[in-house]
Amino acid sequence: MTKVRILSYRLRALDSLRGIGRVMDRSTCGDQKGAVISMTKVNLNINGATHSIDVPDTGMPLLWAIRDYAGLTGTKYGCGVEICGACTVWIDGSPEKSCDTSVSEGVGRAITTIEGLSATTAGAKLQQAFVDHQVPQCGYCQSGMLMAATRLVQSGSVPSDAQIDSAIGNICVCGTYPRVKAAIKAASGGTTPIPTTTTTRPTTTTTTRPTTTTTKPPKPTTTTTTKPPKPTTTTTRPRKPVTTTTRPRKPVTTTTIKIKGDD
Ligand code: FES
Ligand code: FES
């Protein structure tokens, strides 16, 4: 029954992502059709403190109550289907996926979130080892990773790679697994070398720049060479001989016209 309820909450979460759902009020809340439903008061023991919160349904995921009602947002929502481990918290000291645990299952039990991890010796040690090994990249998976890994550190022996792999199934899309392993081993008292990033900076030697005053050689004085004048060559073109062709005159033919009566 609890699983069915949690599934319905997942669907509701998907709806709200699509903008269909409505933002719920803390004292009363409406379902998607606007009906008002009553809230139930529950007491959750989180990190040693009692959180008295009003929830619309005790079957909703504990993750919702921790983040949205108790206001402890260090625990992350990743897959929502018990795969990624981003939502890992401790319930009575054992790592659990809070996306798949109902609020009613958390009532009356000791819940520890990432905000309370440093209060434990192993948790504080591992957090410091994560810092020393520069484990986090984007950081989104890290709180769940720390909650799961601290249990290994608490076991008191240095775990092997295979033991770490089988104990921690948390997903880190940034691929920090090799550093996570190194940090777990270091926090467990292993000899995994912590990358010593103590690079001593060379003492800055103040090199005084040599004052080189390079005197530019004087520019050669430009001697103005006067070009010799171009010889003026006046070529007188020979004149074309004027050929005057006198056309022979046509002989004048005189025709004498005899006029009657002139005899
Ligand atoms: S959000 Fe719970 S396992 Fe991924
Ligand atoms: S550090 Fe980015 S997901 Fe793990």
Explain what this protein looks like in three dimensions:
The strands form 2 sheets. The protein has a 5-stranded mixed sheet with strand order 4-3-7-5-6, with helices on both faces. Strands 1-2 form a two-stranded antiparallel ribbon. The longest helix is centred in the first third of the chain and has 16 residues, at 2-17. It has 263 residues and is of the alpha+beta class. It is elongated. The chain is built from 7 helices and 7 strands. A hairpin with a 5-residue loop joins strand 1 (29-30) and strand 2. It has helices at residues 2-17, 62-69, 103-106, 121-132, 142-154, 161-167, 177-187, and strands at residues 29-30, 36-37, 40-46, 49-55, 88-91, 94-97, 110-112. Helix content is 27%, strand content 11%. Bound molecules: FE2/S2 (inorganic) cluster (FES) (2 copies). One FE2/S2 (inorganic) cluster is lined by residues 77-80, 82-87, 97, 99. The site of one FE2/S2 (inorganic) cluster (FES) has 11 residues, from loops.
Question: Termini distance?
Answer: 168 Å
Tell me the structural class: alpha+beta
Count of alpha and pi helical runs? 7
The number of distinct β-strands equals 7
Main β-sheet, spatial strand arrangement: 4-3-7-5-6
String of helices and strands: HEEEEHEEHEHHHH
- Overall 3D form: elongated
Strand content: 5-15%
Proportion in helices: 25-40%
Bound chemical compounds: FE2/S2 (inorganic) cluster
Q: Kindly state the mean pLDDT as a whole number?
A: 79
Computed CA radius of gyration, to the nearest angstrom: 51 Å
Largest sheet geometry? 5 strands, mixed
